[in-house]
Specification:
43% helix, two-stranded antiparallel sheet, alpha+beta, 179 residues, disordered N terminus, 4 helices, 4-stranded antiparallel beta sheet
Amino acid sequence: MKPILIIAFICSVNITSFAQNAILWNEKQPLQWLHFSGPVNENSKFDAESFAEVKFNYVFNSPTDFYFDVYANFNKDISWCKKEYQTADLLKHEQLHFDIAGLYAKRLKAAFEGFQYSEDFKNEIQQIFDQKKTEYHLMQQQYDEETNHSLKKERQKDWEVSISVQLNELKYKFNYAKK
């Protein structure tokens, strides 16, 4: 089988525009309000919106010889906040949305690397991605519901602790160098 390079769910952007428009998740690089540079939706009932996503690409030589690059990124151009609501508490809430994306990038990488692939690897990879994507969106929704979008301070703190513990449990490191 010839090596196959697949890039999944990645827009064709050059390195410069990627660096300007997106932030790769890194637990040591917290979000700042200046990262929320998208147009504000004044009609929204929300004070802010974060657009974080999990992406991947891979090289597949055989069912036992493969490499996955999995990462989460924050899109600055479509994330926004109403200036009058830019508080430390709201920024923590939005940061945790991004941290959940980082958690799911780690979970996705672990799922990809722990799977026994067959010759139908493309479908198997897509099924793994679809399952983790569903889990990711459900967790984001649950987070907002349980914290009432950061208004329930105790639940917000519980989520911060829980996500931190879960991130620490997964030891996968990512190569953030973009090609």
